[in-house]
Amino acid sequence: MKFASRIEKVPPYLFVGISRKIAEKRAQGIDVISFGIGDPDIPTPDNVVEKLRETALDSPNHRYPETDGLPEFRQAVADWYQRRFGISVHPDKETLPLIGAKEGIGHAALCFIEPGDIALVPDPGYPCIRWAHERLDADLDAIPDDVADKATVMWLNYPNNPTGAIADADYFAKVVEFAKAHDIAVMHDASYSEVAFDGYRPISFLETPGAIDVGVEFHSLSKSYNMTGWRLGMAVGNEDIISALMVIKSNLDSGVPNAIQYMGMEAMELSQNAIDERNAIYEHRRDRVVQTLRDIGLDAIPPKASLYVWTRIPEGFTSAEFTALLLDEADIVVTPGNGYGEYGEGYIRLSLTINDEDMEKGLARLSEWQIPSKD
Ligand SMILES: Cc1ncc(COP(=O)(O)O)c(C=O)c1O
Residue ranges of the Aminotransferase class I/classII large domain (predicted)? Predict the structure, then answer.
């Protein structure tokens, strides 16, 4: 059998290997605690699930959805943008529902990239972005002019997975200037825009003057409203890019089931109080994880947003070695930083989507664990 080169070139999806290792340990009766994948343990709000129950019984919702979604859903997205970021977008021309942000990110690659083209993507960065495109660098000053001139698209992701880094208005303004100077489309993955701490509220790339001329922003209801299992997100921004994505999507998928879009409309109406209460749970976990990592001698910095604590490991260990030691000696799963790219080497990532009881059990094991000496 001859597979396409992209199958052979790409390492297996990061979490597949980790899941296998956990399964092996659990089969031996070991109670492994996982700080691995970022998948909210907190359930989808009841009223959102209730909306599915209601709309699932409605037979028109049993048929193919439209790729561009329900007009009411597009309007709900535009209303959410207005409320959340103070930005007006055209519901029919500048928004598009996605079967999760991941689907949109993967398909957006097909809008811009031909064999041999250059895409600028973050390293370390979310594997889906890196997989769908060639890897390069997202530090604007580090990108040589000739590379920038050849690039067709640049990916950003703030708040960032895996690092938790955030972007400010000045940085986004610089991105718009750079994109215009080099004729590059900007794709901003804002999947963690609603998961933030210490009173911080992430901004939208589209708040930047001129951003809508060059870019699109991706949102995910997965992390915003604990809805990973329902698969819903949206792309918002430049009309031409939205149209191009619509061309790809209408040929490759049949859109988001209507009942799931109704759930999304209900979710986007949730009060900021409800979001703040949810974020307070993550914030408490963040503080516990950071403190424990510091107690064992790691230099963890508390992130202002995202679901992850990203921390450097001691010199002399690779990320894979350190991760394997934690699993073998403390029965704890963390994600090795090199899974997010070359520049993630020397780091690990801990996810905060673990219930408090398991987290405390895992942190107790971590506190008792001695980092082996490398000399
Ligand atoms: C940066 C980033 N973008 C997108 C996604 C995927 O979002 P969705 O569940 O909406 O496909 C994730 C999931 O972990 C992520 O970390």
Answer: 31-366
